[in-house]
Amino acid sequence: MAKVYVSGIIDAPVDAVWAYARDFNGHGEWHPLIAESHVEEGLPSDKVGCVRNFTLSNGGKLRERLLSFSDLDRRFTYNIIVSPMPIQNYIATFGVKPVTEGGKTFVEWMAEFDVAPEDEARIRQQVGRDTFAAGILALEKAVKARL
Do you know which InterPro entries this protein is assigned to (predicted)? Predict the structure, then answer.
């Protein structure tokens, strides 16, 4: 099983970051890889079990199901149902915590998945750097624009 873990600091208060990031379908507004996204069946984006269906800027299509969601813990977990990547059993968690000094936010995004050994380095890069790290930077820019 491959594991990816990326963390970062966003120079904004945790409540502002979570208010923006908690929308499971909101990544289409701030993540540079997402071209279009919608939640199937008109469900709320914070309802456990909802499925976001989205298209990447390169044309790839994904479907992801929200497995758990907590405003109290400022965290959600989801899995991939359909992906153009050669992976299986993908489960990811996104969460934020307050940095006690300076009014900043600690962000962590992690995933575990099965992938063939010959694809692992490429997929770890794609998930870790291209998706999670790029997403944290883009999220900071989006949140700061709203403050």
Answer: Polyketide_cyclase/dehydratase, START-like_dom_sf
